[in-house]
Design a protein that fits this description.
Blueprint (H helix, E strand, L loop, with lengths): L10 H20 L18 E8 L2 E8 L6 H14 L16 E7 L3 E2 L12 E6 L2 E5 L1 H7 L3 H11 L13 E5 L1 E3 L1
Antiparallel strand pairs: 1-2, 1-3, 3-8, 4-7, 5-6, 5-7
């Protein structure tokens, strides 16, 4: 089993990222497309994946992320905020009157690795990505907690998200990746 994800952020860094996400969305709404401001600390330049989740009145309003840490995390948050607000195919684009009411949740991801033993998956601690080409589905760690899923239900629901049969995680040719996240 991998060591726990040790990436952590200060309250100042978390606040910067939340403000950055809101600013990014606001700039699109105001049609003033700028660059993200430089981060206050070096930790925010780490190359990690991230998801931005938007909630409105307690319900999901958008959630999109990038799992590969191929650029500084603050840049990923900047872009994923825009994607969650305007390009999540499940929802219409965010409206200007909604910006002040949305709650922003950010998940900074550890690198994905193939899960060597599915009995070690801990709902609430691990997120999952199920891959059976050409299909894939990902659920963040907090989803299992929110729905109070046990390990098997979490695996089944991740397969459903991929558009696969619920028991696809048991079949040869399916790979399950796991990761952890700093969620705030």
């Amino acid at each position: 089993m991998p060591d726990r994800f040790r990436f952590s952020l200060s309250e100042e860094e978390k606040s910067y990222l939340r403000d950055l996400a809101r600013r990014s969305i606001g700039e699109v709404l105001e049609e003033t497309d700028g660059e993200p401001p430089a981060p206050p600390t070096e930790a925010l330049t780490a190359h990690l994946g991230a998801f931005v989740t938007l909630k409105l009145d307690g319900g999901l309003r958008g959630c999109i992320g990038h799992v590969i840490g191929d650029r500084p995390v603050y840049e990923t948050v900047w872009e994923m905020a825009r994607q969650a607000a305007f390009r999540d195919p499940r929802f219409p684009p965010l409206r200007r009157d909604e910006l002040g009411r949305i709650e922003i949740e950010i998940s900074i991801l550890s690198p994905l690795t193939a899960c060597p033993d599915l009995s070690c998956v801990e709902p609430g601690r691990h997120g999952l990505l199920v891959l059976r080409p050409p299909r894939s589905g990902l659920l963040l760690p907090q989803v299992a907690t929110e729905y109070r899923w046990d390990r098997e239900t979490f695996l089944c629901q991740t397969c459903r998200k991929a558009g696969l049969p619920e028991d696809a995680w048991r079949e040869p040719g399916t790979t399950v990746y796991w990761f952890e996240a700093e969620i705030f």
